[in-house]
Specification:
- It comes from Polymorphum gilvum (strain LMG 25793 / CGMCC 1.9160 / SL003B-26A1).
- GO terms for molecular function: DNA binding; DNA-binding transcription factor activity.
- Keywords: DNA-binding, Transcription, Transcription regulation.
- InterPro entries: GntR_C, TF_FadR/GntR_C, Tscrpt_reg_HTH_GntR, WH-like_DNA-bd_sf, WH_DNA-bd_sf.
- The protein has about 230 residues and is mainly alpha-helical.
- The protein has two domains: about 70 residues, Orthogonal Bundle (Arc Repressor Mutant, subunit A), CATH 1.10.10.10; about 160 residues, GntR ligand-binding domain-like (Four Helix Bundle (Hemerythrin (Met), subunit A)), CATH 1.20.120.
- Helices cover about 70% and strands about 5% of the residues.
- A two-stranded antiparallel sheet has the order 1-2.
- The protein is globular.
Length: about 230
């Protein structure tokens, strides 16, 4: 009996642990993983998407999949469980994300370095390049926001924020991941709108403008809330 994607995702996690793969390590190709796990490549592709939305793997267009953290270290699992137990609480989780990112950006504006601004600029370029590819987008979006919040120099804030964001991304895109389709707001025709949503957050960081940062984060929050509503309706 062929393994379902969730089973394969668990096996890939076990493979990461067994091979002692550290953060940033590149996974074998989907073809090689299919051979290692004795399953089909489409099933491996689905399993990779599951791990991407869990925040355990980063998908890079044209490059492959990379470990973002060891599975046993993921705070997102606990947050995800809470949301699974009460799906109607998603708006509370989105509010928490707003508060965490607002504080993160305010602190980044105060404490962030020029090197961290450059990291944010690079993350934005990756985000732009990922539009149209749902797996790459989820990785790039989490990476962009987390990069800016890490510039707050508060590792606890950054870790909790990334876990909350990853859980919301999983919730938001789960239906489209399952279907293998791309929501209308992630199509290549919407590239300008997607950039306009994220660029002001980085610009506020670059200009050390706290008020602009708060406004940009709040605007992103409202747009994400609409996407969550659309996702829930799927």
């Amino acid at each position: 009996m062929p393994l379902v994607a969730e089973d394969v995702a668990s096996q890939i996690q076990d493979f990461i642990i067994a091979q002692n793969l550290s953060e940033g390590s590149r996974l074998p190709s989907e073809r090689d993983l299919a051979k290692i796990l004795s399953t089909s490549r489409p099933t491996v592709s689905q399993a990779i998407r599951i791990l991407v939305v869990k925040g355990l793997i980063q998908s890079r267009r044209g490059s492959g999949s990379y470990v973002t953290r060891r599975p046993q270290e993921s705070l997102a699992a606990s947050v995800n469980l809470m949301l699974d137990l009460d799906r109607d609480s998603v708006h509370h989780l989105n509010d928490l994300r707003l508060w965490l990112e607002t504080m993160g950006i305010v602190q980044a504006i105060e404490r962030g370095t020029d090197a961290e601004i450059a990291e944010g600029e690079a993350a934005l370029e990756v985000l732009k390049d990922s539009i149209g590819d749902i797996s790459a987008w989820m990785s790039a979006d989490t990476h962009f926001h987390a990069t800016l919040v890490r510039a707050s120099h508060n590792p606890y804030l950054a870790s909790i924020f990334e876990s909350v964001h990853a859980t919301l991304i999983e919730y938001e895109y789960r239906a489209w991941v399952d279907k293998g389709t791309v929501p209308k707001w992630l199509r290549k025709t919407e590239a300008a709108a997607v950039t306009a949503l994220h660029e002001p957050i980085l610009q506020a960081f670059k200009e050390r403008n706290e008020e602009a940062g708060r406004i940009a984060v709040l605007h992103h929050h409202y747009v994400m809330a609409q996407h969550l509503i659309a996702s829930h309706a799927q």
